[in-house]
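EI: anyone free to look at a 328-residue chain?
SC: sure, send it
EI:
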Amino acid sequence: LLLLPLLTGGGWSPALLVALLVTVLVAQLLVVPIQTSIVARNYGERRRGRRFGRAGAVQSLFIIAVSVPAGLWLDRDPSAWPWAYACGGLAGMFAYRQWGRLRRRRATAPPTDLEQHASAWQALRRDRTFLAFEGCFMVYGIGFLALMPVLPLYLVDELQVSYTDVGIARGAIFWSVMVLASPWIGRLGDRLGILRLGALGFLGLALFPLTLWLLPNLLGLFLGHALFGLAMSAINVTWNLGPITMARGRDPVPYLNAHVAAVGIRALIGMTAATALHQAFGTAPVFLGVVGLEIIAAGLMLWLAVSTGRRWRLPGAQPAVDVPRPPR
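SC: here you go
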């Protein structure tokens, strides 16, 4: 990212932009298992959800502080986007360095030989509850990622918004809701359980494209991003801490690997299908399809919560009944 302004030489190409986005995505996905493993092994189970919610609120504050000024900057000089990415690269270098300096604060029980060498596929095959959990996230993720290629086209071509409008909606409103909601969502997850929290998040996410479709103006843009922020507060906690909870005291690495690897599968399905559907029929069918997928995902997650007969909780509360380990 830091070399981008030099590589472009004042210009850019679609191929270079795609390469940049792929690089950013790969870097983000590589660090997720490391971050989640550090959280699992450094913080006690009783308050892990609350601590994660507070950390999310702090992160959101910094994003707010950057997003709106960046939008104003790019409105004045749209060609400056490589330098904006370079600034992000500097911040990313510092953040990754800080993650690398973190150490375990308490010892953990060594995993068994089977756990230590288990693969992501084995975690899915042996733990049917985790497999069902990932199935719910697959439906949600296909819908969520289907929005990614279509949303910018909708904002630019149909709403005709500016960088500043997007900065206010995505930077100020979305992340302000994340700041306010994340600590509360962490506590709510401790009370409701991880499956019910995820179901609420998926259902809330369905309101985002529905609002944009019903209110095709700035009011819809701002209101939709407020609902988007509230939904993603719940989904963020569930997505990051869910695999740790599903591991139930075992080595969480295979669960984390399976969870992250599934992102690529649903991205390929969701983005490809949404792009083709948008080119053939326009924005409305994509938005309605996403609404339908999120409602289905919420129903499946709630069904899983009921069918297990247990109150799956975020780390910080004991299950309502004893949970036996699945056979190996």
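EI: Residues 310-328 have pLDDT under 50 and may be disordered.
SC: 👍
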